[in-house]
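Researcher: I'd like a structural prediction for the single chain below. Treat it as a standalone chain; there are no partners to consider.
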Amino acid sequence: MPVRPGPGGPEHDTGSRSAELAGFLSGLHGRVDPAHMAAAANCVIDTLGCIAHGADQPWSRAGARHALATGPGACTVVGWPDRASPAMAAFANGAAAHAFELDDVHEEAVNHPGAVVVPAALAVAEELDASGPAFLEAVVAGYEAMGRAGLAVGPVSHMLAGFHPTSMSGVFGAAAAAGHLRRLDAAGLNHAFGIAASLASGTMEFTSSGGMAKRIHAARAAEGGIMAAALAAQGFEGARDGLAGRYGFCRVFTDDPQPERLTERLGERWMIDEITVKPYAACSDVHAMIQATSELVAAHGVAADQIDRITVDGPTKAAELNDMDGTRSVMAAQYSARFNIAAAVLADPADPSTYHPDRIADPALAALQARVATTVPDPVFDATYAWKQGARVRITLTDGRVLQRTVHGQRGSMHDPLSDEEIERKFRVLAQGRLDTAIPQVVRTLSERPVEYLTQHLRSG
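Model: Treating it as a single chain, here is the predicted structure.
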């Protein structure tokens, strides 16, 4: 259902695209379509499952210790008895959500909104004792801002220049979610966007020389967005066109600025309608490759010792940023096209344990990975990247047969979405023994309950 922009504040009519977006988002209170509230509930369920699994990872535990060391607060840090301030609880939960490549994706914006927006919205909602509907509305607003910022910066150019989209555009999503809960008017939310523009950061160097920094990119964006909204609520002023101005976010961090996309079809096209829920614990840019390989293996009963070589065609991004030895680290395994294709033959990329350090060290995986060629860029897949992901996998067998499969619009994406039950099943697998497995049902009843009903269950797991 189309939604008209709200009346906004005194700065709504400045001619700035940032102000126009802020005016629209500030008018959403009590006016979000039930279908989008239901979509937000699915995003919350999926993200909480990711947090449950990710909280046990060493990088997440380090992030949580850092958050809790900053001092006590009122907000839940999943998996820990102590609480933190809103910004630092969001930092800890954001790190856990983004800890293991399980979190949702807006493919075209090339960012992970759930790991940023849900922790930010949850922390501020808990601080303010917000209603369940206000929390879900904040999630919708946050996804909208983060997705549109990601589109408007020219996402492919932005990423290939070395910026990590989740950490860069994420700060606007967190600011929008926190601003919604703080009931910032159009002027206030626009100030939050202007402040957030000075907090955007994060590079893709982890794909080249490793390290754990990528694991806190969603965390830092969630923290920064909460800070931006809190400062705006105190009367702190940000740039009036922080997103699309001459030196705004959408122009500085790209060679392909597309600021018109900040406001294009506002109220008609919704970012939360376009989310991919990931069935595999790997970079979503290689999911079509995993799916194509898995389907060939299942259809033809292919075994590793029957394979002579595997070739793959895909988007340029995957050829440039996903070509690595996946056996050198967990991060590399989750990003490597060659490793994930090998894993689709020998293991199960839907099982997070496939990426355990002991598993990726299996010599059989290394041997098969060596028979997978570097991804070849294909104009067909570049033409739809990243709105619709695609890949073509060819397996040449030792007997000379060639098996080929193309996937264009992978499972879990808006082109082939997971059902509510499949999303809940993923949650149960990830949360087993870590969180209350009744949480999906709790989230689905938030339209009639305060957010405290959810946080009580998060603390009881």
